[in-house]
Amino acid sequence: MAERPEDLNLPNAVITRIIKEALPEGVNISKEARSAISRAASVFVLYATSCANNFAMKGKRKTLNASDVLSAMEEMEFQRFVTPLKEALEAYRREQKGKKEASEQKKKDKDKKTDSEEQDKNRDEDNEEDEERLEEEEQNEEEEVDN
Amino acid sequence: MADVAVGRDKCGEPRLISLPLSRIRVIMKSSPEVSSINQEALVLTAKATELFVQYLATHSYRHGSGKERKALTYSDLANAAAGSETFQFLADILPKKILASKYLKMLKEEKREDEDDDNDGHDEAES
Protein backbone atom coordinates (compact mmCIF):
# COMPACT_ATOMS: atom_id res chain seq x y z
CA MET A 1 0.00 0.00 0.00
CA ALA A 2 1.59 3.30 -1.10
CA GLU A 3 1.59 6.01 1.56
CA ARG A 4 0.61 9.49 0.51
CA PRO A 5 2.77 12.24 2.03
CA GLU A 6 -0.03 13.36 4.37
CA ASP A 7 -0.20 9.93 5.96
CA LEU A 8 3.19 10.34 7.58
CA ASN A 9 2.07 13.56 9.23
CA LEU A 10 0.18 13.86 12.45
CA PRO A 11 -3.13 15.78 12.61
CA ASN A 12 -2.53 19.51 13.03
CA ALA A 13 -5.41 20.05 15.42
CA VAL A 14 -4.12 17.52 17.93
CA ILE A 15 -0.52 18.73 17.70
CA THR A 16 -1.65 22.31 18.22
CA ARG A 17 -3.70 21.34 21.24
CA ILE A 18 -0.79 19.51 22.84
CA ILE A 19 1.51 22.50 22.29
CA LYS A 20 -1.03 24.98 23.65
CA GLU A 21 -1.58 22.92 26.77
CA ALA A 22 2.16 22.72 27.38
CA LEU A 23 2.94 26.42 26.98
CA PRO A 24 1.88 29.24 29.31
CA GLU A 25 -1.44 30.84 28.50
CA GLY A 26 -1.54 33.53 25.83
CA VAL A 27 1.63 32.42 24.06
CA ASN A 28 1.32 32.61 20.28
CA ILE A 29 2.58 29.80 18.14
CA SER A 30 3.46 30.73 14.57
CA LYS A 31 2.12 28.51 11.81
CA GLU A 32 5.68 27.72 10.82
CA ALA A 33 6.56 26.66 14.34
CA ARG A 34 3.51 24.40 14.50
CA SER A 35 4.35 22.75 11.22
CA ALA A 36 7.96 22.33 12.29
CA ILE A 37 6.96 20.65 15.55
CA SER A 38 4.63 18.33 13.65
CA ARG A 39 7.46 17.28 11.32
CA ALA A 40 9.75 16.84 14.30
CA ALA A 41 7.16 14.58 15.93
CA SER A 42 7.03 12.33 12.86
CA VAL A 43 10.81 12.12 12.81
CA PHE A 44 10.71 11.29 16.51
CA VAL A 45 8.39 8.35 15.84
CA LEU A 46 10.73 7.02 13.15
CA TYR A 47 13.79 7.43 15.35
CA ALA A 48 12.07 5.79 18.33
CA THR A 49 10.80 2.93 16.20
CA SER A 50 14.17 2.24 14.70
CA CYS A 51 15.79 2.34 18.11
CA ALA A 52 13.14 0.10 19.70
CA ASN A 53 13.48 -2.32 16.82
CA ASN A 54 17.18 -2.70 17.58
CA PHE A 55 16.28 -3.84 21.07
CA ALA A 56 13.70 -6.29 19.71
CA MET A 57 16.26 -7.74 17.30
CA LYS A 58 18.77 -8.04 20.14
CA GLY A 59 16.16 -10.09 21.98
CA LYS A 60 15.63 -12.17 18.82
CA ARG A 61 12.02 -11.02 18.60
CA LYS A 62 10.14 -9.89 15.53
CA THR A 63 7.46 -8.00 17.40
CA LEU A 64 8.18 -4.65 19.06
CA ASN A 65 6.94 -4.61 22.61
CA ALA A 66 6.54 -2.09 25.44
CA SER A 67 9.95 -2.71 26.99
CA ASP A 68 11.64 -2.11 23.62
CA VAL A 69 10.04 1.32 23.47
CA LEU A 70 11.10 2.12 27.05
CA SER A 71 14.67 1.04 26.31
CA ALA A 72 14.64 3.18 23.19
CA MET A 73 13.69 6.25 25.25
CA GLU A 74 16.70 5.73 27.50
CA GLU A 75 18.94 5.19 24.50
CA MET A 76 17.70 8.41 22.89
CA GLU A 77 18.38 10.31 26.13
CA PHE A 78 14.74 10.89 26.92
CA GLN A 79 14.91 9.25 30.36
CA ARG A 80 12.51 11.90 31.60
CA PHE A 81 9.78 10.13 29.63
CA VAL A 82 10.29 6.73 31.23
CA THR A 83 8.29 7.26 34.43
CA PRO A 84 5.22 8.89 32.81
CA LEU A 85 5.32 6.19 30.14
CA LYS A 86 5.33 3.43 32.74
CA GLU A 87 2.35 5.08 34.42
CA ALA A 88 0.55 5.30 31.09
CA LEU A 89 1.28 1.63 30.46
CA GLU A 90 -0.24 0.65 33.80
CA ALA A 91 -3.32 2.74 33.14
CA TYR A 92 -3.68 1.21 29.68
CA ARG A 93 -3.36 -2.32 31.02
CA ARG A 94 -6.00 -1.66 33.68
CA GLU A 95 -8.29 -0.23 31.00
CA GLN A 96 -7.82 -3.25 28.77
CA LYS A 97 -8.49 -5.61 31.65
CA GLY A 98 -11.73 -3.77 32.40
CA LYS A 99 -12.80 -3.87 28.76
CA LYS A 100 -12.08 -7.56 28.44
CA GLU A 101 -14.06 -8.41 31.55
CA ALA A 102 -16.94 -6.30 30.30
CA SER A 103 -17.02 -7.98 26.92
CA GLU A 104 -16.79 -11.43 28.44
CA GLN A 105 -19.75 -10.58 30.62
CA LYS A 106 -21.61 -9.31 27.57
CA LYS A 107 -20.95 -12.54 25.73
CA LYS A 108 -22.29 -14.55 28.64
CA ASP A 109 -25.44 -12.46 28.69
CA LYS A 110 -25.80 -12.69 24.94
CA ASP A 111 -25.44 -16.46 24.94
CA LYS A 112 -28.20 -16.73 27.49
CA LYS A 113 -30.45 -14.60 25.25
CA THR A 114 -29.79 -16.24 21.88
CA ASP A 115 -30.45 -19.70 23.29
CA SER A 116 -34.01 -18.72 23.91
CA GLU A 117 -34.32 -16.99 20.54
CA GLU A 118 -35.23 -17.87 16.93
CA GLN A 119 -33.04 -18.34 13.83
CA ASP A 120 -29.76 -20.27 13.61
CA LYS A 121 -28.64 -17.87 10.91
CA ASN A 122 -28.56 -14.90 13.33
CA ARG A 123 -26.68 -16.88 15.92
CA ASP A 124 -24.02 -17.91 13.45
CA GLU A 125 -23.37 -14.31 12.40
CA ASP A 126 -23.11 -13.15 16.01
CA ASN A 127 -20.70 -15.91 16.90
CA GLU A 128 -18.44 -15.01 13.96
CA GLU A 129 -18.08 -11.46 15.21
CA ASP A 130 -17.34 -12.58 18.75
CA GLU A 131 -14.79 -15.07 17.53
CA GLU A 132 -13.02 -12.36 15.55
CA ARG A 133 -12.92 -10.11 18.58
CA LEU A 134 -11.71 -12.89 20.84
CA GLU A 135 -9.03 -13.79 18.30
CA GLU A 136 -7.76 -10.23 18.35
CA GLU A 137 -7.61 -10.24 22.12
CA GLU A 138 -5.88 -13.59 22.15
CA GLN A 139 -3.35 -12.26 19.67
CA ASN A 140 -2.63 -9.36 21.98
CA GLU A 141 -2.17 -11.73 24.87
CA GLU A 142 0.27 -13.82 22.86
CA GLU A 143 2.29 -10.76 22.03
CA GLU A 144 2.36 -9.74 25.66
CA VAL A 145 3.69 -13.16 26.57
CA ASP A 146 6.71 -12.43 24.39
CA ASN A 147 7.77 -9.98 27.10
CA MET B 1 6.02 17.21 34.98
CA ALA B 2 3.10 16.80 32.61
CA ASP B 3 0.17 14.68 33.77
CA VAL B 4 -0.25 11.20 32.37
CA ALA B 5 -3.48 12.22 30.70
CA VAL B 6 -3.54 14.86 27.98
CA GLY B 7 -6.77 16.63 27.13
CA ARG B 8 -10.27 15.57 27.94
CA ASP B 9 -12.85 13.64 25.96
CA LYS B 10 -16.55 14.34 25.40
CA CYS B 11 -17.53 13.33 28.94
CA GLY B 12 -14.79 15.51 30.45
CA GLU B 13 -12.76 12.42 31.38
CA PRO B 14 -8.98 12.78 31.07
CA ARG B 15 -7.96 11.15 27.80
CA LEU B 16 -5.04 8.75 27.94
CA ILE B 17 -3.78 9.44 24.41
CA SER B 18 -4.76 12.19 21.96
CA LEU B 19 -2.75 11.23 18.90
CA PRO B 20 -4.46 8.76 16.53
CA LEU B 21 -2.93 5.31 16.93
CA SER B 22 -3.67 4.39 13.31
CA ARG B 23 -1.51 7.26 12.06
CA ILE B 24 1.31 6.49 14.48
CA ARG B 25 1.16 2.91 13.26
CA VAL B 26 1.51 4.00 9.61
CA ILE B 27 4.62 5.99 10.45
CA MET B 28 6.14 3.15 12.47
CA LYS B 29 5.46 0.61 9.73
CA SER B 30 7.20 2.80 7.17
CA SER B 31 10.44 1.94 8.97
CA PRO B 32 12.14 -0.75 6.86
CA GLU B 33 13.18 -3.49 9.30
CA VAL B 34 10.05 -3.45 11.42
CA SER B 35 7.86 -6.53 11.05
CA SER B 36 5.15 -6.27 13.67
CA ILE B 37 4.18 -4.00 16.51
CA ASN B 38 2.54 -5.06 19.74
CA GLN B 39 -0.45 -2.92 20.77
CA GLU B 40 1.29 -1.77 23.96
CA ALA B 41 4.34 -0.64 22.01
CA LEU B 42 2.03 1.37 19.75
CA VAL B 43 0.32 3.02 22.71
CA LEU B 44 3.64 3.86 24.37
CA THR B 45 5.09 5.30 21.17
CA ALA B 46 2.04 7.52 20.76
CA LYS B 47 2.30 8.67 24.36
CA ALA B 48 6.05 9.26 24.04
CA THR B 49 5.41 11.39 20.95
CA GLU B 50 2.98 13.55 22.91
CA LEU B 51 5.56 13.97 25.68
CA PHE B 52 8.12 14.84 23.03
CA VAL B 53 5.91 17.54 21.49
CA GLN B 54 5.39 19.08 24.94
CA TYR B 55 9.10 18.93 25.72
CA LEU B 56 10.22 20.37 22.38
CA ALA B 57 7.72 23.22 22.63
CA THR B 58 8.49 24.19 26.22
CA HIS B 59 12.27 23.83 25.85
CA SER B 60 12.34 25.91 22.68
CA TYR B 61 10.13 28.56 24.23
CA ARG B 62 12.17 28.84 27.42
CA HIS B 63 15.48 29.14 25.59
CA GLY B 64 14.13 31.20 22.75
CA SER B 65 14.08 34.87 21.97
CA GLY B 66 10.36 34.72 21.36
CA LYS B 67 9.79 34.81 25.10
CA GLU B 68 9.81 38.62 25.17
CA ARG B 69 7.14 38.69 22.51
CA LYS B 70 5.16 35.86 24.18
CA ALA B 71 5.49 33.83 21.01
CA LEU B 72 7.06 30.59 19.85
CA THR B 73 8.69 30.98 16.46
CA TYR B 74 10.40 28.70 13.98
CA SER B 75 13.81 30.09 14.85
CA ASP B 76 13.27 29.17 18.52
CA LEU B 77 12.90 25.58 17.37
CA ALA B 78 15.84 25.71 14.97
CA ASN B 79 18.01 27.11 17.75
CA ALA B 80 16.92 24.32 20.10
CA ALA B 81 17.82 21.72 17.49
CA ALA B 82 21.23 23.26 16.89
CA GLY B 83 22.04 24.02 20.51
CA SER B 84 20.89 20.95 22.40
CA GLU B 85 22.36 17.47 22.23
CA THR B 86 18.99 15.90 22.96
CA PHE B 87 17.44 17.53 19.90
CA GLN B 88 20.44 17.08 17.61
CA PHE B 89 18.59 14.50 15.54
CA LEU B 90 16.28 17.29 14.39
CA ALA B 91 19.06 19.55 13.11
CA ASP B 92 18.61 18.48 9.48
CA ILE B 93 14.86 19.00 9.34
CA LEU B 94 14.91 22.22 11.35
CA PRO B 95 17.77 24.12 9.78
CA LYS B 96 18.49 27.67 10.82
CA LYS B 97 17.35 30.20 8.31
CA ILE B 98 19.31 33.14 7.02
CA LEU B 99 18.23 36.00 4.79
CA ALA B 100 18.61 35.32 1.10
CA SER B 101 20.71 38.47 0.77
CA LYS B 102 23.10 37.18 3.43
CA TYR B 103 23.40 33.85 1.66
CA LEU B 104 24.17 35.47 -1.67
CA LYS B 105 26.80 37.59 0.07
CA MET B 106 28.37 34.42 1.55
CA LEU B 107 28.44 32.83 -1.88
CA LYS B 108 30.15 35.89 -3.34
CA GLU B 109 32.78 35.90 -0.61
CA GLU B 110 33.49 32.21 -1.11
CA LYS B 111 33.86 32.74 -4.82
CA ARG B 112 36.25 35.62 -4.23
CA GLU B 113 38.36 33.48 -1.88
CA ASP B 114 38.59 30.74 -4.48
CA GLU B 115 39.68 33.20 -7.11
CA ASP B 116 42.33 34.64 -4.79
CA ASP B 117 43.70 31.15 -4.17
CA ASP B 118 43.92 30.54 -7.91
CA ASN B 119 45.75 33.82 -8.43
CA ASP B 120 48.24 33.05 -5.65
CA GLY B 121 49.03 29.69 -7.18
CA HIS B 122 49.56 31.39 -10.50
CA ASP B 123 52.03 33.89 -9.04
CA GLU B 124 54.07 31.20 -7.30
CA ALA B 125 54.28 29.17 -10.46
CA GLU B 126 55.57 32.16 -12.35
CA SER B 127 58.24 33.12 -9.84
Automatic annotation (TrEMBL), chain A:
Any Pfam family: CBFD_NFYB_HMF
Entry annotated with the keyword Membrane: no
Start-end of Basic and acidic residues biased regions: 93-124
Compositional bias annotation for Acidic residues: 125-147
GO CC field: CHRAC; epsilon DNA polymerase complex
SUPFAM superfamilies: Histone-fold (SSF47113)
Family annotation (CDD domains): HFD_POLE3_DPB4 (cd22928)
Cellular compartment(s): Nucleus
GO BP term, pick one: DNA damage response
GO MF terms held by the record: chromatin DNA binding; protein heterodimerization activity
Chain intervals for the UniProt region annotation (Disordered): 93-147
Keyword DNA-binding set for record: yes
UniProt entry keywords in alphabetical sequence: Acetylation, Coiled coil, DNA-binding, Nucleus, Phosphoprotein
Leader sequence residues: none
Annotated ranges, domain Transcription factor CBF/NF-Y/archaeal histone: 9-73
PANTHER family per the UniProt record, alphabetical: DNA POLYMERASE EPSILON SUBUNIT 3
Role description: Accessory component of the DNA polymerase epsilon complex. Participates in DNA repair and in chromosomal DNA replication. Forms a complex with CHRAC1 and binds naked DNA, which is then incorporated into chromatin, aided by the nucleosome-remodeling activity of ISWI/SNF2H and ACF1. Does not enhance nucleosome sliding activity of the ACF-5 ISWI chromatin remodeling complex.
Record note on quaternary structure: Component of the DNA polymerase epsilon complex consisting of four subunits: the catalytic subunit POLE and the accessory subunits POLE2, POLE3 and POLE4. Interaction with POLE4 is a prerequisite for further binding with POLE and POLE2. Heterodimer with CHRAC1; binds to DNA. Component of the CHRAC ISWI chromatin remodeling complex at least composed of SMARCA5/SNF2H, BAZ1A/ACF1, CHRAC1 and POLE3; the complex preferentially binds DNA through the CHRAC1-POLE3 heterodimer and possesses ATP-dependent nucleosome-remodeling activity.
Protein's recorded name: DNA polymerase epsilon subunit 3
Organism: Tupaia chinensis (Chinese tree shrew)
